[in-house]
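so i finally got all the pieces together for this one. its two components total, 572 residues if u count the protein bits. some of the lines might not be protein, just check the labels. i wanna see the whole assembly predicted at once instead of chain by chain like last time, that was a mess tbh
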Amino acid sequence: MGSLNELYQNVILEHNRSPRNYRAMADADRKAQGNNPLCGDEVTVWLRLDGDVIKEATFQGSGCAISKASASLMTGAVIGKTRIEAEALFDRFQRLVTGRLEPAEAETLGKLAVFSGVSEFPIRVKCASLSWHAMKQALAGDPTDQPVISTE
Amino acid sequence: MTAATTPLTRPGSPAPFDVARLRDDFPILARSVRGKPLVYLDNAATTQKPRAVIDALVHFYAEDNANIHRGVHYLSERATEAYEAVRERVARFIHAPSPRQIVFTRGTTESINLVAQSFGRSMLRPGDEILITGMEHHSNIVPWQLAAEATGAVVRAAPITDSGELDLDAFRRLLGDRTRLVALVHLSNALGTINPVRELVAMAHARGIPVLVDGAQSASHLEVDVQSLDCDFFACSGHKIYGPTGVGILYGRAELLERMPPWQGGGDMISSVTLERSTWAPVPAKFEAGTPMIAEVIGLGAALDYVESVGLPAIEAWEAELLAAATAAVGEVPGVRLVGTAPQKASVLSFVVDDVHPHDVGAVLDDEGVAVRAGHHCAQPVMQRLGVPATVRASFAFYNTLAEVQALVHGLQRVRAVFG
């Protein structure tokens, strides 16, 4: 049974209170919106790329502590990554929050490992994943597209 | 003995409302979750089931199971009798003039869809209007949007006030020459507001407009008399009134049900069938195509018997006391803002906590064994109107206690401790 302290680790509470990279980006060249129709959570992710490298990542939206902290840490984690590296990170994060990541791999996730408790609360997996899906969608999308993705 | 009863006395009985004894009738209330005693405050989503209902389902499948309206054999006759007896039971429960005016459906949602598809599609013309309100559940919005899309009709919505009351003047103004039907909620699932249905029906009837009442929430909290309300349709669900899931009720005015075409075709709803054409069975069979939810209907009958043995006047009085206590105590928790403060309310306490998302509130409460709903409650227009993305909703049933109200308050204090 999942414990509340494992779900709401201090890093998550802290990022919820003071989310990083929480702003719209005027000169973004990629943008995607995510929403979870079941709970009404919404997030917009902006990316600025230099060639294949993410130079800047920001977000805005409304959601629970898990989704806000996840978006905050996600933006921090993907800055400086290439598209392929960011997508690989997305994959590892997905496996982390669904409880399918080997412990050795979890160690490579750094701060993101604080979301390991989410796997004990299946209903919150979508909260943790929402901004990641939006980030992936933004990377994949045509720069002129503004797709809305859904975790439902 | 005099006719007068005190609010907490069950009719015909001098004993006060004995919550502890009534709780024993609900096996699930004895369990714990996450190591804490279950405090079930999500009754607007679904109610728990008394042993009488669980036993009725088991008994039906163990002893009486057969299809209805078909067999000439003993069990089929028994099942048919039991099923049809519940129709009479339901008619008495909501004071319908005749059991022929009771259609069994899968739930409130299906009841409303039945009216929207059958009445709506056959009566609506381009430019006609369906009037709903700004506090409807999605199930009393989307079926009308579908009917409007198919017919060229228009859905209009009467606004609500900041406290979550229907704006009666606006409602009156929106009743126009093109309004063909009014569909409104009796007791709001998101806010707990009780609409003045009798008054609203009178306004609509003054212009010859029929009214559908969504009674999904009201049927278990208020005594419903469809003749006194004078509504033309009344829809409710078995599972919100201590019965099984998968069964609901549609009450309809006889002449409307007669005029309405079937909405689903199949067995049991026909008079005769040839390969070229069919004729319809009389109401209510016309609206009950296929093998219905026989066990669930029988379970619903047991639920209504049970509710009546407790007594709706006593239920109303106890729930009013619970809601008043919860409103006062939760309202005093620092950072809590109540959403929906209409003077006439029942069962539902919706609120937000400053700087803490409702899901996070719900997760902390869950860790305390307190089950609430967090979200938009399938009433997104209500949330948009009141400027909140979601709320936390505690909803009470007669088996809840004042100690459980305290558990909710304690949980909310822990929310502050966790999130600062």
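The CA atoms of residues 80 and 404 of chain B lie 42 Å apart.
The longest strand of chain B covers residues 179-185.
anyway lmk what u think
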